[in-house]
Amino acid sequence: MKPDDLPSAGTVFVHDVPGIGRFSLRQLDLMRDVTLLHRWLTGAHAVFWGMQTATPEAVADYFRRLDENRHAQALIGCCAGLPVFLLETYDPRHDPLAAHYEAQPGDKGMHFLTAPPERPVHGFTRAVMGVIQAWLFSDPGVRRIVVEPAVANDKIHPINLDAGFVYQCQIDLPGKRAWLAFCRREDFAAQAEARR
After folding, report:
1. 3-195: what CATH class?
2. I need a labelling partner for 46 at 20 to 30 A (CA). Which of 18, 62, 112, 117 fits?
């Protein structure tokens, strides 16, 4: 193991992806991460996060409020020790999404944003999705992962489908028309087995 592969302080999960590298998830540290998050969230690739014109102060305020919400959390995903994605998870029973389906105990909602790569790596975003699923399903209480990607976000739909998400219906959420989709624990296991 190289030194930059070692987990940093606040690491909650480590997962190796053959051919890509060692991933880790760590708790978000706002003082340390706000500049990075501002750069990611205001970039062209993050248009569906709706923060294109946000100031660093607005980004910090958003994550402060998220940190105060005991039903949600934000984490930084790293590969070989370098930050490469943002992950938000939430309990759909305490989210506006609950107005659109019968949220159940064991459901876990999530959003993620992969940083623009310095050099593209084939299959990287799919690897990130797999790491997120592996972490969420490492909690035996999680039965289903719930996502609500914007209908217009054409890049994420093939990734979701490849990861075992089953699309249900379109719904109207604040600021977007979205697909409601679920990945059950069994769906994730079946997709992982199919890739072996």
Report:
1. alpha beta
2. 18
Torsion over CA: 89, 92, 96, 100 (sign): positive
Which residue from 72, 71, 58 is spatially nearest to 30, judged by alpha carbons?
58
Give me 1's structure tokens: 């193991």
**pLDDT confidence of residue 190:** 84
Q: Is the pLDDT of residue 184 over 60?
A: yes
Q: Are strands 21-27 and 11-17 parallel, antiparallel or unpaired?
A: antiparallel
Three-state secondary structure call for residue 12:
strand
Burial 141-174 (b: 16+ CB within 10 A, else e): ebbbbbbbbbeeeeebbebbeebbbeeeeebeee
Predicted confidence (pLDDT) per residue in 119-170, tens digit:
889 999 999 999 999 999 999 999 999 999 999 999 999 999 999 999 999 9
Question: Which residue shows structure tokens 């248009």?
Answer: 47
Does the pLDDT of residue 4 top 50, yes or no? no
Query: Is the Cβ–Cβ distance between 13 and 25 less than 8 Å?
Result: yes
The tokens describing 29, both together, are 């540290």
14: left (phi over 0), alpha (psi -120 to 50) or beta: beta
Residue ranges of E strands in 18-163: 21-27, 72-79, 82-90, 107-114, 144-147
Q: Do residues 113 and 52 touch, judged by C-beta distance below 8 A?
A: no
Q: Give the sign of the dihedral formed by CA 92, CA 97, CA 99, CA 103.
A: negative
